[in-house]
Every structure is written in structure tokens, then in C-alpha cells.
Amino acid sequence: MRTWAGRRSEWGNRIRGSALWRGAAALAAGALPALAFPAPSLWWFAYVALVPLLLLIRSAGTGRRAALDGWLGGTGYMLAVHHWLMPSLHVFIVVLAALLGLLWAPWGLLVSRLLGGPTSGAAVAAAVIVVPCGWLMIELARSWEALGGPWGLLGASQWQVTPALRLASVGGVWLVSLLVVAVNTAVAVLLVSPAARTAAVVALVAGTVAVGAVWMWAPQPERSGVARIAVVQPGVIEGPGSIQRRLARSEELTRSLAGRDVDLVVWGESSLAVDPVRRPDVAARIAALSRLVGADVLVNVDARQTDASGRTGIFKSAVLVGPQGLTGDRYDKMRLVPFGEYIPARSALGWATSMGRAAGEDRLRGARPVTMTLPGAHALHIGPLVCFESAFPDMSRRLTRDGAQLLIAQSSTSSFQNGWAPAQHASLGALRAAENGRPMVHATLTGVSAVYGPQGEPVGAPLGTDTSGAAVFGAPLATGTTLYVRLGDWPLYGALGVLAAFCAFEGVRSVRRPGLSVPAGAVAAGAASATPARPAPESRTESAQ
User: Fold this and answer.
1) Residue 230 is inside which H or E element, if any?
2) What is the full per-residue pLDDT of the chain (545 aa) written as tens digits?
């Protein structure tokens, strides 16, 4: 009977024997974590979904192969979590995914270095800490708006898991991503290194204890009342005159809210295609609706407008309308969707408009976040965001620090109704609510509308993609702030520190032992051993170099 080590060696040799098969395996392995996100929502799968990719990179015979496996795995991941963009970007999405996938190439080298050789207890501890930190740097880099923004952060797959939401209140979605990758790394060690299984189990237990400690002791905001928020979702309306018919449907649904004692009515993104300042008749119609229902109406304008600084162009704006008309409260979207709302370096990439539904004219950006105050005894402060902006943790945190008691995201996913995007976009509201200890309203023109309480818990039943209607949600309000609001993105700074220390340790070893080849993975254990590592076989030597 063959030993496990023998079977593993045979499996590794077969993989190395077929570069094409290996490349396809890396793409497929990288795509697996997408199943943890909505719509499949296999949240538990996230804790093992990276294991195949980790094992594949571990078996790489050289550093070049490990970097290539990481790149292909990252490309598969980006394609899977953004596949719903294919109708808009067509083949260009493959190019974008491949470019962003390059961020995973250094991570592939890191994984190979930490897991590719003998795994002592110290090496396991280093891998469980350093590999997740490397992944977090990828998430940080691709969260830059110009690179597509923080869509598909691995921690966001845990939006419906209460302990994970509590963890997010301490360190944001970043801390949840660290935990998920750390568990995957420990599981990978369990599968391939019998000698280090005790250390891997200890790492898993330590993670469980840490989550339990956060659950018990992390401060949570205290409930302080309820705001009755009405969401108006007209649904998909297409064909001639769709703009006028959509407005008429929104008005009809808003009238149905009369007598329901609401504090605010929220319409979805692009609910108005005209500037209400230039069209006082439209502003008057919405003001009449406000008087009828006894609450202000937060609409969203996608039209040519002039902002406070005198700039004229197409803005996407959250505009508050009261019984007397426009209140003067307006927020212009600050972070725009690449290609969907503007084309980066249009002079060079303008040809993308011929390949899909890319923006024919760039939208203009807002200058600053805005909090709005509703009239009434409670003087509720709301913090509006527009669509894509709900994916950015720092934006909702800034609004909370500015005094927002209720976070609102206005969205529309009419181009992606039949894909995974609407449910995944709505799920981000749970994370933003838990991070900030504030209720979050995700209101869509089309898509999935949902409301979450200050701990990320769902409030009422969401409105699905096939719904055309209005609903009233009792959003629980809260006072106080979470540790994430107070401390900010400390997991990112911690990860940077860990990686800097690891690189410094590697540099010192290379200076002290010039010309000495060290097996991948043994370097991480070196801190716990004063004995120089022995030269490895040729394939490992290439990997170390």
C-alpha cells in the first residue's frame, strides 16, 4: 500500500508534467471562492475554498511556476466574482481580470516560500500569519477605485454569519478576510504535513478563541429607537418612454405610503433623469408626494447639473426633497465605476465604448461626503451613498464619524438583473452596518432592496429582483460607536507591519548566509532554529532563488 507521502509525490509529478493542465487547474481553483458569495451563498465554503489553490502553488517546482500559479489563480478569482460584467465589457473583462490577477503573483511566491518545504511548528505559525497578510495586501491594492474597487473581498462572503459580523465591528471586512485566509492556510497544512498537524490544529483553536473573545467583549452600540424608512422600487421598465413611465410608477408607489407614518421615503439610483433645479415642475411633483406621505423623499438624479462650485456636467446625486420643495441637501457621487461611469485614460482606452456598454461621457465627481438632517423631533441624520460606494468601508465609516445615524445606499442593477450582482451588492449593507454600528438601507431602482440593523442583522423581508413595489422597514437606531469606527483600518497596518518584518528577516538571512539555498517554507521556521538549513534538491533551489 502506498503511503500518503508517496501518493502526494506522484500527484505533484503529474501536475508538473502538464503545464496546460496545471494552468487550467489554477484558473479553476482561483474561481472556487466565488461560490461563497451570493447568489450561491455557500458562506461555509469560503473557509476551505482556497485550499486547492494553496496546494497547487505549494507543489510548484520553481518560484516562476509559483508566481504563474498565483497569477492564474487570481485571474480566475477576478473573472468569477466579476462574471456578471461580461454583458457590458465582453472580452475586455478577461483582459482586466488578467491584469488584476498579476497582484496574486507575489502572493504565489509567498505561499511557495512558506508552505513549499518542511513545515515545523514555527513554520506553520508563520504561514498562518503571513499568508493571510499577503492576501490582504492584494485586497487593499485592488480596492483602489481605478482598479475596480473592493468588490468581492473575501471577508464579504461572511455577511450573514453573526460572529463574522461581530469581528467586522472590530476590524472591518479586512479582519474577516484575514480570518478566512488563515483558516484555509491551516487546513492546507493539515492535509499535506502530518508532522505539523498539531501546530495547525493549535492555530485553528487559537482563531476560534479569538473570535469567541471578540464575541464576548467587543463593544456594541446601544439601541436608541426606530426609524420607519420606506423603500420605493419600481423595478425594470423598458421600451419607449421608459423614463417617464418609471417616474410615474415611483410616484404611484409613493402615494401608496400615505398614512403609514414613515420618517423617510427612499428612491433608487437614477430615479430622476432630469435636474429638479432646472425642472421645477418635477420638483413640485415630488414635493406634493412629500406632503402627502408626511416625510421627505430622497431621490437620485442622473442628469446634467451644476454643482456648488459652478461645474456643469453629468452628476449622480442624492437629493432631498421636502414638503416645500428642494431642501438644498445634495450629495454628488464621489467614487465612480470604471468604464460604467467614466473611462480611465479615455484618450487611450476610449475604444472600450465600442466593445460594450462603457460610458459615452464621463460623469463628474462630488467634492465631499454629506450628511443630511431630516425634520422632526428626532432630527435624524442620514449619510447617503450612491451604488458602488457601499462597497468602500472607509466611506460609511467617514459618514458615521460625521454623525450619520442612518446609512443609505441608492442603487440600480437593471443591466445585471439575472446574475449574482444584485444579491451580492445588497449583502454589502450588512457589513457596512456591522462595521459602523448603524442601520443601513440599500434601496434599488431595480435589483434587491434590503435593510440591516446596527449589528448587520436583516430587518424585514428584502424586495427581490422581480418586485415592483414599496415597503416600510423599522430600522433600529443606535448610539455609540464600534471599535472599527474608532480605530479604523488597523488590520491593514498590522498586515503591512508583519510583511515588513518577514521581508527584513528574509533579508538578514540572505546576508548572513550568502549563497545558501534554503528550502521553501524552512525560512519561516528559521526564526525558531539556530541551525543553518541544508541545501535542497535542484528544484527547490530554483524556487528559493
Assistant:
1) strand 222-233
2) 455 545 555 655 555 557 888 999 999 999 999 999 998 999 999 999 999 999 999 999 889 999 999 999 999 999 999 888 887 777 788 988 999 999 999 999 999 999 987 777 788 889 999 999 999 999 999 999 878 789 999 999 999 999 999 999 999 999 999 999 999 999 999 988 877 888 888 889 998 999 899 888 888 888 889 999 999 999 988 888 888 999 999 999 999 999 999 999 999 999 999 999 999 999 999 999 999 999 999 999 999 888 888 888 889 999 999 999 999 999 999 998 877 777 765 555 655 555 556 666 778 899 999 999 998 756 899 999 999 899 999 999 999 999 999 999 999 987 777 788 899 999 999 999 999 999 999 999 998 999 999 999 999 999 999 999 999 999 999 999 999 999 999 999 999 999 999 999 888 887 876 654 444 444 444 433 333 443 444 333 333 33
**φ, ψ dihedrals at 149, nearest 5°:** 80, 175
Q: Are 472 and 260 in contact (CB under 8 A)?
A: yes
Measured CA to CA, the distance from residue 47 to residue 44 in angstroms comes to 6
Q: Is the distance from CB of 172 to CB of 216 less than 8 angstroms?
A: no
Query: Three cell numbers at 32?
Result: 472556487
Give burial (CB, 10 Å; 0-12/13-18/19+) of 510: middle
- Candidates 316, 311, 313, 314; CA nearest to 299 is 316
What single string gives the DSSP state of each residue in 452-504? Answer: E-TTS-B-SPPB-TT--EEEEEEEEEEES--HHHHH-SHHHHHHHHHHHHHHH
Give the closest residue to 411 by CA, choosing from 264, 228, 238, 267. Answer: 267
Q: 27 CB contacts (<8 Å, ≥6 apart)? A: 72, 73, 75, 76, 79
> Side by side, which strands form the sheet with 381-386?
372-373, 381-386, 406-411, 440-444, 450-452
Measuring CA to CA, which residue among 189, 187, 192, 195 is closest to residue 8?
192
β-pairing verdict for 406-411 and 372-373: unpaired
* Residue in the block written with cell 528559493: 544
Residue 41 DSSP SS3: coil
- The model's pTM is 0.87
Which of 408, 177, 418 is closest to 300 using CA atoms?
408
- DSSP helix/strand/coil, 328: strand
Q: Is 321 left (phi over 0), alpha (psi -120 to 50) or beta?
A: beta
